[in-house]
Each structure stands twice: as C-alpha cells, then as structure tokens.
Amino acid sequence: MTELIGIDLGTTYSCVAYMNGDRPEIIPNFEGNNTTPSVVSFTANGERLVGLPALRQALTNPENTIYSVKRLIGKKFNSPEMQKIRQHVPYKISEAANGDILIEAGGRLYSPQEISSFILAYLKTCAESFLGTDVEEAVITVPAYFNDHQRQATKDAAAISGLDVIRIINEPTAASLAYGLESRKEGLLAVYDLGGGTFDITILEMNDGVFHVLSTSGDTFLGGDDFDNCLISSLLQEFREANQVDLVQDKFALQRIKEAAEKAKRELSFTTETEVNLPFICSTEDGSLHIKKKISRSYLERLTENLVDRTLTISQAALSEAKVNPARVDEVILVGGQTRMPLVKQKVTQFFGRTPAARINPDEIVALGAAIQAKIIRGSINNLVLLLDVTPFSLGIETENGGFEKIIERNTTIPARKTMAFTTVENNQRRVKIHVLQGESPRAEENKSLATFDLVGVDPAPAGVPQIDVTFEIDGDGLLKVAARDVNTGREQKVVVKPAAGLLPEELQEIINRRKKEVADSHDKQGLL
Ligand code: AMP
C-alpha cells in the first residue's frame, strides 16, 4: 500500500502531513518550509512554477501569477463576489460556456480546478520525495462552509493532480481531531478558523473518542485577503487624493502595494507601528511618485474591525444553532493565519469569555488533522475515534411557483439520506424533472442550484400512478448523490444528471489525459522513460 497524506489546501498557504506511526507530522516542501504558498506562475519561457518560486514572480509577472484560486473554485463568473475579486487581482478572469470561471495565464485558459491541481501535484511530489514512496491517496480539507460545487471542484482538482481523495473533510473538524487527540481534552469545543479567504466556526462535542459536530457556520468570502484589501484601498485612496493619480489600473504598482500591505498587516501583529515604503511606485510627466506611510496597529484595527465583528455575528449564529451560549464552551481553538492578529484574539476572548487554547500552530493543525483522518479511514488508528460531521446547508428541491422544499436540513449529521416519492402529473408522462438546490431561502432562485435530475423512461401510465422513490444522500464528503427506484416495478430508475456548475466527467477526463501526456512528455525530454 502507498503512503496516505492529509492536505490543507489553503487560500494563501497549503500544508501537507502524514502519520509517522501514531503521530501526525508535517512534510516540509522542497525549500524546507512547512507551508507552501498557494501560488502558480507561468513564466515567459513556458515554465510553470508553484509555491515560493511562483510567489517571487508575482512582482515582475503579475498577470501570469495566480494566487487565491480557492476563492474562485466552484464559483460562477456572474456572482457578486467574483465581480469584486476581479477588481483586486492582476490576472485575467473570464467566463466559461457554462457560466463558471476561467483564468487566463501563460497564453492559455485554465479552470480553477486545474490551477489548484498544480498546487496539489506539487505537494504530492514533495511528499513522495520526503517519504521515498509513491503517494496516491489523500484526505483533503475544505472550509466547512464550502457548498457542493466547491467540494466537487476540489475533488476534481485532486483527480487532475493524480490523487485519489479518500475523504473531503472540513477544516475546523480536522483541526479539532488534531487538537482533541493530542490534548486528550473532553467537552464542548469551538473552532474559530479565519484563514486567507474564508471564515468558519464549528461547535463540537468531544467525548470518549467521539467528535460530534453540533453546528457549523461561516462565510467563504471573509478572510485575511479582505483585511489586506482594506489596507490596500486606504493606501490607494490616500495616493489618489494626494497626487490625483489612480493606481488601480497599474498592475505592477497594485501588486507591490498588495505585497506591502500584507507584510505590514503581519508585522502589526507583533509591533504597534510599521511603515509602507514603496519608492518609484509610478512615474508621471512631473517625475516619479512614491508611497511612504507609517501605519499603526490601531489604524489597521479601525479599518478592519467590522470584519472581525462579522465573524462574531456568524459565531453567535452557530452557537444558537447548537443551542449553547458562549459561556458553556470549554475550549476555543484558533485556526488560520489571520487569527494571529491581536484584535482577533482579543475579540474572540471577549466573546467566549475565555482565552483560546495555547500551543497550537494555526497554519499546521488542519493538515495534521487531515493526516489523522486518513489513518482513521484506513482503520489503522489505535484508539477508537468516531467523527460525526454535519452538512452546512439545507438540501431541497424546487416546488411549484419557484418555492423551495427542504429535504435535509442544515447541520444534519452526515452521511444523511432521505427518500421522497415522486409521480407524474400527466397521462403517459415519460419524464419527471427534479431541480435540487442548496440553501436556506424559501425561494428557489435565492438558493444555489446544484443540478437537475431527469427521471427518464417512466413506464406509460395514467397521471399519478407511477411511484418513483428518489433517495437524496449527502455522503461523508458532504457531496450530493441521487438514486431512484420505480416502486411498482422495483427497477432502478434511470436518472440523467445535469450539474449546474463544474467540469463534466468527459471534460475532467480530457484534462487528466492531457496532464498525463504532459508528464510523460517531460519524462521523455529528461530521458526518464
Ligand atoms: P491561512 O489560509 O490559514 O494560511 O491564512 C493565511 C492568512 O493569514 C493570510 O491572509 C495572511 O496574511 C494571514 N496572516 C499570516 N500571518 C499573519 C500575522 N502574523 N498577522 C496577521 N495575519 C497573518
């Protein structure tokens, strides 16, 4: 059997771990670092770089350096979030034929799944080199608040990279596994996870090896990138007012400001004042212009306080769903790089009335938990551990007049399944259409359309006579599966699935084949065959 790995595929950084006996350990990358920038760059001479070398290109090659792709995965081009993100990134985002997103780089169009697959393939290679063996299977983590499309797209990215995903698990749940098994603590745990692009809060109970998630909530568009953007916007505005020059269209200047803002934000977690110093940021007819500005921690806090408050409103919602008040929580753990910000720590401490657990590395704990989960699934963990996670959104179907009927409520323990009986409304009707959506609104159009399922080849019969039992299942990965059975004949009913987003199986296969060919060609070139 090959080695199993756990991967935290992050918005800004990714991390990979494995089980060394009964202990999870981080696998360093080729530069010797425990985390790898989630960045892919395409150079002018056709080379593809991943991680730190790619990040180093960002300044000189901004249009072909792709970062934060996790914010794009599984999203529609026309979504409001995507329109916002297009203004902030220097690379080009366009619309695919099915309304998904395509990224233009290195003279080609890539789906976000493909870009993510380059990062996964890099981590796979690092793991193979470190462990000295093939790695074919992995547990990959996703934000708890990822919907079906985002989860499926992550799974597709892994397939393209040559990894078989044995389970998709939620990042906070992975963190709780690593924390719970190491600390041997029991009771009610809140995992507050503020990463580069997403926020998740999960409330769970740990008792006797059982990790039971009570509720989860979040925002897949609230993370460290938004803190950076507050500072970037303020620098741009001040520059515009002082010089009557708008730097928004200047991709090189924008990239420099972005890097400087993120660096300043990080520094302000450890010092109370820092400086953004960007000489020759642009040149005008009157000469060169520069940015030189002192930034205090309190200034950054004023700019971003509303973002931290948003996380607390979401945390309150998760606690209400779990029917517990903050004071009942026995332990709070902080996950994700953005939780290093003192204001975040301070507000979370105030909110829960307790200091978050110490000695946790917020960048590594999720990957460690993923490695543990891989070993649990393979049944080779000594202690008995049971993980009961939940679905973050309600699943339902469109009813007459655009209504939405919930079939599986959010925060239901997964895997979950429910069977509903469908029939025909016309005589000899051969086809029944079912539109499945995810969300909480009573109006179908306000929820996320997942797919339409056509029950085809229904036996001719008077209206209302056929009875087709349709079983909706949310599996352990949080993904939807649908099966149907004709009750009168006992036969399996054929279902034609039209997903509302994502790669079709044939598109995925084509990309996998192309990637295999690319790898074979490069081996050929290096005489490795
Ligand atoms: P993650 O996705 O968990 O790797 O989180 C990455 C986010 O954490 C990025 O937005 C980073 O800018 C942010 N981050 C990392 N270190 C710090 C720090 N010292 N202070 C504030 N934010 C940080």
Structure report:
- With 529 residues, the chain is of the alpha+beta class.
- It folds into three domains: 4-222 and 309-390, 2-Layer Sandwich (Nucleotidyltransferase, domain 5), CATH 3.30.420; 224-302, Alpha-Beta Complex (Actin, Chain A, domain 4), CATH 3.90.640; 395-496, Substrate Binding Domain Of DNAk, Chain A, domain 1 (Sandwich).
- Helix content is 32%, strand content 31%.
- The chain is built from eleven helices and 28 strands.
- The strands form seven sheets. Strands 1, 2, 3, 4, 11 and 12 form a six-stranded mixed β-sheet that branches.
- Strand 14 and strand 15 (210-219) form a beta hairpin.
- Helix 6 (224-243) packs across helix 7 (251-267).
- The chain is globular.
- The mean pLDDT is 93.
- The site of adenosine monophosphate (AMP) has 18 residues, from helix 6 and helix 7.
Give the helices and strands, then pairings:
Layout: E1 3-8, E2 13-20, E3 23-26, E4 36-37, E5 40-42, E6 48-50, H1 52-57, E7 65-66, H2 80-88, E8 92-95, E9 101-105, E10 108-110, H3 112-131, E11 135-142, H4 148-161, E12 164-170, H5 171-183, E13 187-194, E14 199-207, E15 210-219, H6 224-243, H7 251-267, E16 273-284, E17 287-296, H8 297-322, E18 331-335, H9 342-352, H10 365-377, E19 386-388, E20 395-398, E21 404-408, E22 416-422, E23 432-438, E24 448-455, E25 468-474, E26 480-486, E27 492-493, E28 495-499, H11 505-525
Parallel strand pairs: 1-11, 11-12, 13-18, 15-19
Antiparallel strand pairs: 1-2, 2-3, 2-4, 5-6, 5-7, 8-9, 9-10, 13-14, 14-15, 16-17, 20-21, 20-23, 22-25, 23-24, 24-28, 25-26, 26-27
Helix pairs in contact: 3-4, 4-11, 5-10, 6-7, 6-8, 8-9
The structure holds adenosine monophosphate.
Adenosine monophosphate binds next to helix 6 and helix 7.
